[in-house]
Amino acid sequence: MPEHELLKSQLELAVHGDLDALVAVLFLHRDRLERLVLRQIPVSLRRRLDAEDIIQEACIRAANHISGFNPEDEKHFFAWLATIAQNLLRDALRRHLGPGGSGGKLQFAQAGESSVMLFDELVGDPQASPSAQIAADEGIERVRAAIETLPEKYREVLSLVYVKNMSAVAVAEQLQLKESAVYMRVARGKEMLRDRLGSQSNFFL
Hints:
The chain is an all-alpha fold. It folds into 2 domains: 99 residues, Orthogonal Bundle (Rna Polymerase Sigma Factor, Chain: A); 87 residues, Arc Repressor Mutant, subunit A (Orthogonal Bundle), CATH 1.10.10.10. Helices cover 68% and strands 0% of the residues. Helix 2 runs antiparallel to helix 3, helix 6 crosses helix 9 and helix 8 crosses helix 9.
């Protein structure tokens, strides 16, 4: 079967909920995506901004939204995936290179901030006012509490990725899972969190 037909068939399966097909499609494009992201990270920021974190989050977001992709448009799948990664990278660069040069509170690969990043993905970026910061802190606690209600396999992975700030590779090694399984558990866990948070969960790419 020609490669484009194979990709199309895998995409059709992925769009209809086949996780194995989804993993196959994402990993087929992973190396190319990594090269793209690495080329766009300034050398001066490569110690502070980890391409792996961006690729990991891009794959998770693609998994969350694959049902909206038209499998007939398989030639543009990489462009779709790359756009997700580039949006994440653009936001990360803006935070690092914004006014004053210090960036905002969300920086990839900065310890202690991943749970804040997850909260922002779930409910939107809080404003900087004191009252909004209090609300944000309360929101983060709600997210952490919601994580504790998840089935163990999702709770464990989300806690390692977003609370302990571990990479998918490190989590896979610790839990003796395939890296693809980590991505899928994170994607499914975040979907379950959105259900639990209800109207508070309204911000996804």
